[in-house]
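I am writing to request your help with a piece of structural work I have in hand. A protein sequence and the structure tokens that stand for its backbone fold form the material at issue. Please examine both parts with care and let me know of anything in them that strikes you as inconsistent. The record follows directly beneath this note.
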Amino acid sequence: MLLIHMGPTEFIYYWLHRALHLHSLYARYHSHHHASFVPEAITGSVHPFMEHLMYTANFAIPLVGTWMAGGASIAMFYMYLLGFDLMNIIGHCNFEFFPVWPFQARTTLSLSLALLLRLRACICSTSARALC
């Protein structure tokens, strides 16, 4: 189920949400979701009916896929749906559960990778001059 969710469901959700921010769809559907001045837990579930249908169809993909593969259970359906409701609440409750600074800071790995790429570019340009 996790692979089905990470594959098509996340991909479709990302592009669907991006499309809902286009002017024509935003004005018709998604602006209602952004109308609250202070985000609250319920804000994540405030959508027009058509948007609810789109999200429901998208999040049904892993549920139906797992059922068709023969690995579904009622408990799994509840855990999946309640888990995403919880994530939706956390994302819209106007409180930072996970600090942003660790994700904004450059890690040792990214600095090492940047240094290696710079070194590689330097070696390649030196060897290219030697060939000329």
The mean pLDDT is 77. The two ends are 56 Å apart (CA to CA). Residues 2-97 form one domain. The chain has two domains: 2-97, 103-132.
